[in-house]
Amino acid sequence: xxxRVNNQLLESSKSGLFVTAWIGTLDLSNGHLIFxxxxxPFPYLMRNGSNEYEMLKSSVNLVLGGFGNFKYKQSEVDxxxxxxxxxxxxxxxxxxxxxxxxxxxxxxxxxxxxNVGETxxxxxxxxKAAVDKYTExxxxxxxxxxxxxxxxxxxxxE
Length: 158
What we know:
Layout: H1 2-12, E1 21-26, E2 32-38, E3 44-46, E4 54-55, E5 75-78, E6 84-88, H2 90-93, H3 104-114, H4 120-134, E7 146-150
Antiparallel strand pairs: 1-2, 2-5, 3-4, 3-6, 6-7
């Protein structure tokens, strides 16, 4: 999919437009997640029973619209009952304070770890509140999108 979208974007764009993207397919019957990133920030994964999130690193691929016929590499991970995935756009880690500092990945991870027991909705709302507090007094310069997914398949006792 990324290969095709990349080439179509290059064919249709005359302005050097590029896009970051993250795509994944989760098999709900067994938790197998196949995913790829096109220059998008790595998501965070929290294993059920853990008290912290870890960055879910994958193959480093180019943004969409960078170079034609780029072969994007995919990665795979098995999710288990209760595992959570937190995805976000770069508008979160690149959100700026009044003094020009970035919200950054360290603050993202800290906020996620401090809110491990939250609902998936609460995870997103707490992150939004944290970034709003950090950027208070500044104008939002980029999109800010977040998604938390909790895998509820499999068996709770596995």
